[in-house]
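chain below, 282 aa
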Amino acid sequence: MLAPVVTTVAEVREAVAAARRAGKTIGFVPTMGALHEGHASLVRAAAAASQFVVVSVFVNPTQFGPKEDFAKYPRTLEADQKLCSESGAHLIFAPSAAEMYPERSVTFVEVKELDAELDGPARPGHFRGVCTVVLKLFNIVQPDAAHFGAKDAQQARIVRQMVRDLNVPVAVRVEPTVREPDGLAMSSRNRYLSPAERALAPAIYRALRNTQARAAAGEIDVARLESALAAELAAVPGARVDYARVLDANTLQPLSRLDREALVAVAVFLGTTRLIDNVVID
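prediction:
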């Protein structure tokens, strides 16, 4: 049976209140739709941890820059409903932009410092849009736990900080990145890749793994690790490196040497498609 789709805040709150009256805990997976196996794994994790699972499907306009792909971002609600239902979701919240941002909405949420690197400078205003919509969704759904993917490591770290700083009563759980058999991290944007670009895309993960291997072999100089990583990515035919960084995994600040847990994060354009991925060195 397909999980029902609702489009208003009132409908979500009514359904969640009924589940709570029945003694159920609430799990939540926020998405922008165009769902794939990576999202399915988040829904399954939520279903394993909670008794009533809500998935939001909302392409959030406030996290897209003026030159980004908001207009062409895939909308596949019927397929998303099927995937969510098969993975254990009980309700799908698919609001309109007007429902999420009523006329004269002027309040936004920002998490400082953690947006100073990586996608912060690369996508100005992106995390302000993410934090605002995630906090709104938390207030609407009021889940006990929310599940995010490790592929969006900076987003997950920022959401955790927001929840801590603003005393939001939600447990943020970060689930492992789901990959294709050749290592490419699953992403809704992978469908934009041409066949030739798709064949090249696994080189991104190989470069990340090679960085881990260099660290395991004893390299602790971050500048050398970053330089080798950027060079390996730049050598992929047609690739354009947006960033290739090794940062403190907790603060997301630059490091000079590997003396703590580090996040190795990259953003690479293949053609017009921007792909992100990361691994951790601990």
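Residues 136 and 257 are 39 Å apart (CA to CA). The chain has a mean pLDDT of 97.
thats it, cya
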